Amino acid sequence: MNRVAIVGGGISGLAAAFTLEESRRSGTVEYTLYESSSRLGGVLRTESIEGCLVEAGPDSFLSEKPWASDLCREIGLGDQLIGSTDADRKTYILVRGRLIPMPDGLMFMVPTKILATGFSPLFSWTTKLRMAQELFRSAQVTGGDESVASLVKRHYGEEVVDRLADPLLSGIYGGEADSLSVRAVLPRFAEMERTHGSLGRSMLEARRKMPRKAHEPAKSIFTSLKNGMQQLVENLVLKLNRSSLLVNTPVQFVEFEGGHWKVSAGAKSDQFDAVILALPAHAAAGILSSCNPELSGELSAIGYSSSIAVGLGYDREVRRALPPGFGFLVPHSEGKRLLAATFVHNKFPHRAPNDRALLRCFFAGSNADNIWELSDDSIIAIARNELQQILRLRSTPLFARVYRWKSAMAQYGVGHLERLDRIDRLRRQLPGLALAGNGYRGIGVPDCIRSGREAARQAMEMRG
Question: Is 416 in the same domain as 285?
């Protein structure tokens, strides 16, 4: 019987355990999952406060990536999946203190409806002219990897970097466009430039070719669960062997000797045929430091940023006064500490009663680092002060919660994919070692689930 250790009890580690569970029941695999904290699920955590479902971590996942929805259906949560209310979807960008809606037809940062973009006050006429000219760019071969900011600036100019690329990426990665790898973060854009030259023309062509049945409603961009994202964790854990799940059990290091893996957790060590490190890359680096210093060095070079989420609940008067839509993004040039705010009651009406407004404020990267040591009350005060400046929101919240996630958001810097190739080569020198988590090929919940399940299959194949 193969014995597999899973280090890390976030969604990646739980997905790996679920993939091994069928083999465990058939008697061909035995697994042990080690989690250093007192709870499983990592950043997937939901609180019920005064009738509102408040997410401490991600509030949803991208519908176009199937791995999360597929797992939900496998564990009996198919009827609990809900889509965002995209009919009411509107996102604002703060520009010179005013909230300006993103124009219709803007696909990430590529305009596909020229008139809508042309009449939008979000961009200057210089940028609008450049967007029109971009449609005539010819295909060209570029060099190696570059930053997202570099590619966007080449096509649309600095204003689009400032007002779109930076705030959009800050909301997803907690990072900045001038440091994130375009090949790792937006590989589709790099490919569109290579094949078409013009991002806009390529996107329009892709839309025309997209099959769509008559009268078929468009799929929601975001998907979540009726009772919050923690519902996924709770139902997943029910499908696993409870005696295989060890909480409050941090792993100090692993060693590969004599064709087997020794996992040391506190005073106890155990032997396994394979090890899955479902951890942030920097944590995996620490555990592997004595086992393979070169691999450890590559893993530690993957950057991470911290984030802080603030959940605020208000009464019906605030709900009526807030603008329609999903929320707003704040460019760095606006000089605010707040990077984004979501009007959760609009995005997912199931999250709040009809007489409540539920807001979620987001700080990340250096903005989060600069306020990290402050008390919860001080951070709430900062969020409220900036909401007052942006929304003229002066009401006292009915409740407020602060959630801190230290070094939890992976930063895919320029050269990230080349680094992953080196990591994979070094990993293969250690039979039975697999890596999972948000540090490698996607930071969203579906990506983490996919990585966990692939790691479980890798671990079995390498030791099979």
Answer: yes
CATH of the domain at 365: 3.90.660.20
CB burial of 103-133 (b: ≥16 within 10 Å; e: otherwise) equals: bebbeebbbbebeebeebebbeeebbebbee
Whether 80 maps to a domain, the answer reads no
- Comparing CA positions, the residue from 202, 200, 205 lying closest to residue 132 is 200
What is the per-residue pLDDT across 277-300, written as a single tens digit (0 to 9) for each? 999 999 999 999 989 999 999 999
Last residue of a domain, one of 176, 209, 242: 209
Range list of β-strands (E), 208-257: 222-225, 245-246, 253-257
Q: Which of 76, 91, 68, 46 is nearest to 350 (CA)?
A: 46
From the list 278, 270, 330, the residue with the least C-alpha distance to 97 is: 330
Domain count, the chain: 3
- In DSSP notation, 262-288 reads EEEETTEEEEESEEEEES-HHHHHHHT
Q: Which two three-digit tokens encode residue 366?
A: 């250096």
At 283, list the tokens. Answer: 């944590």
- Integer Cα distance of 250 and 246 in angstroms: 9
- Of 422, 458, 423, 455, give the one whose Cα is nearest residue 281: 423
Clarify whether residues 288 and 356 are in a common domain.
no
Span 307-322, pLDDT tens digits: 999 999 999 999 999 9
Residue 361 belongs to some domain of the structure:
yes
- State which residues form the domain around 353: 305-411
User: What's the pTM value of the predicted model, to 2 decimals?
Assistant: 0.94
Please, are residues 199 and 155 in contact by the beta-carbon 8 Å criterion?
Answer: yes
Shared domain for 403 and 416, answered yes or no, is no
d(CA 202, CA 193) in angstroms, rounded, equals 8
